[in-house]
Amino acid sequence: MHLYGTQAISEEGHLTIGQVDTLELAKEYGTPLFVYDTALIRQRARSFIDTFKKLGVKAEVAYASKAFACVAVYQLAAEENLSLDVVSGGELFTALKAGFPAERIHFHGNNKSIAELEQAFDANIGCIVVDNFYEIQLLKEISERRQQKMRILLRVTPGVEAHTHDFITTGQADSKFGFDLNNGQADEAFQQTFNHEFLELLGLHCHIGSQIFDTAGFALAGEKLIDKISDWHKTHDFTCTVLNLGGGFGIRYTEEDAPLEPQVYVEDMITVVKNKATVLGLTMPEIWIEPGRSLVGDAGTSLYTIGSQKTVPDVRKYIAVDGGMSDNIRPALYDAKYEAVIANKAHAPKDEIYTIAGKLCESGDKLIIDAKLQETASGDTLAIFCTGAYGYSMASNYNRVPRPAIVFVENGQHQLAVRRESYEDIVQNDLPLTLKKGE
């Protein structure tokens, strides 16, 4: 059995995380429950940051917080000297509520509203990643009206397709994101923003996909961006100070996945950019990256309580848990694969095959199909690994199911980071019917 971070098996045969028994966590906080190994998050963050420092390259490592956002995780990111990538007014509000340094916040998104852009200017954030011509016009109007400067990057699509799931590939030409690097759109965006009185163009940004297990795509994208920067340097004497190569660094979900260590991605990126810049006679830009899943994905474990069981003779055995697609939509949405263990029998052999079904009223609500597990019984605690990214952040109240609680663990300590929703929370925005009944 593959264990992650500080996960271990106690003498009693229980799964522990951060030196805390998961059964104790399930008893105290209830299930479903997200448990985050904060020591593993810190380790991953330092791996990225320390590699840049070791190689003497100025950089910002921005946590792509769409993977998982809450006040506590933003505060953890700040403690580890990360920058922050937000994609909505809600994420920006949460970051500011957490006391995250505004100058280290980067705002992404393909349809930022006027209110969201005003919010970014009010907070005087570090950078806005510009996605389209409509946004350029809004930024010009807002900055000129307010007489306020804003640093920007232009997001471009370099035409590089990562070897990943179609639904989460964003660097190819046919994308809702960014200015196409090959059809003149990026050049037009540059013309509209370069030397603007209040918009400071730092450089370019790209994101080629997610769950990527090699560095070839990043290398090719980096070369294409440097070539374009070289063109603008020749024609407009533009000096690129920041090159943001995005994120998408893969993690291990199952034995089929073979991710690289964080430092490998960083080292290969730096090598490509430095060599290309040297050949073209350009100043080495600052490198920004945006790890999200690779910081929190395998640091998260979901705990459930097993309820009903059903055997379909000669077909399969089902076990049902007290959560499902309301707290982890990825299996239904992306056909995502996970591994699991019975937390109170973690030392026992995995001799049984079960399909883990959720409690939602959908036939597609299956968390793992044909999972290898210990023999189970109602009341057992099931732990599903690597649910720290895009689990809670994509959770819903489908079937009016409350969203789970979130607990952080480290060095034998545990704390509630997000409380469990109640039924009262679910109906708090509902209003009674006041329309008059028709005759």
UniProtKB/TrEMBL annotation:
Annotated pathway, please?
Amino-acid biosynthesis; L-lysine biosynthesis via DAP pathway; L-lysine from DL-2,6-diaminopimelate: step 1/1
Q: InterPro entries in the record, alphabetically? A: Ala_racemase/Decarboxylase_C (IPR009006), DAP_deCOOHase_LysA (IPR002986), De-COase2_C (IPR022643), De-COase2_N (IPR022644), Orn/DAP/Arg_de-COase (IPR000183), PLP-binding_barrel (IPR029066)
Biological process according to GO: lysine biosynthetic process via diaminopimelate
**Which residues does pyridoxal 5'-phosphate bind?**
248, 290-293, 390
Name the catalysed reactions.
meso-2,6-diaminopimelate + H(+) = L-lysine + CO2
Q: Give the E.C. number(s).
A: 4.1.1.20
Quaternary organization: Homodimer.
- Put simply, this protein is called Diaminopimelate decarboxylase
